[in-house]
Specification:
- 62% of the residues lie in helices and 7% in strands.
- The chain is mostly helical.
- The chain has one domain: Orthogonal Bundle (Arc Repressor Mutant, subunit A), CATH 1.10.10.
- A two-stranded antiparallel sheet has the order 1-2.
- The longest helix is centred in the C-terminal third of the chain and has 21 residues.
- The protein is globular, with a radius of gyration of 16 Å.
């Protein structure tokens, strides 16, 4: 997942070079929707990512400037991961994936609640969550 490797200049292909593996978008999802920010929190995700894969994906996301690694404010033994603006700008895409999945899959109740909010006013949902994520990013960087 090196940032210099590209299969072509196609925007979809370039995006898949960064996010096309099984885990990277799930890490971003966990950061956006579940406020996960530490290695241990990502390990506890329902999908059960292996530690070596998690380390590799976090490194790739950092190299591609989708996340930033910061010192943890409460523990020198931990690292805090935060989204960058580049990752936050993926929110509308992730929302559309959720809407598509809702059409074709049975989703858990907590996800249905999010999708209900999106369907009521998608633009407002995206605007509100973008603002929240931007504040979280700034707050994490200021500590």
């Amino acid at each position: 997942m090196e940032k210099s490797k590209k299969r072509s200049d196609c925007p979809i292909s370039c995006t898949l070079d960064i996010l096309g593996d099984k885990w990277s978008l799930l890490i971003i999802r966990d950061m956006m929707f579940f406020q996960k920010s530490t290695y241990g929190e990502f390990l506890r995700s329902a999908e059960g990512i292996a530690t070596n894969i998690l380390a590799s994906r976090l490194q790739g996301l950092e190299e591609n400037k989708l996340i930033e690694k910061l010192d943890h404010p409460d523990s020198k033994a931990k690292v805090l991961y935060t989204l960058t603006q580049k990752a936050i700008d993926l929110l509308p895409v992730i929302v559309e994936i959720h809407l598509w999945a809702d059409k074709y899959f049975d989703n858990p109740a907590d996800l249905k609640a999010i999708i209900k909010d999106v369907r009521e006013d998608k633009n407002e949902f995206i605007k509100s969550l973008t603002k929240k994520l931007t504040v979280q990013m700034a707050t994490a960087k200021s500590h």
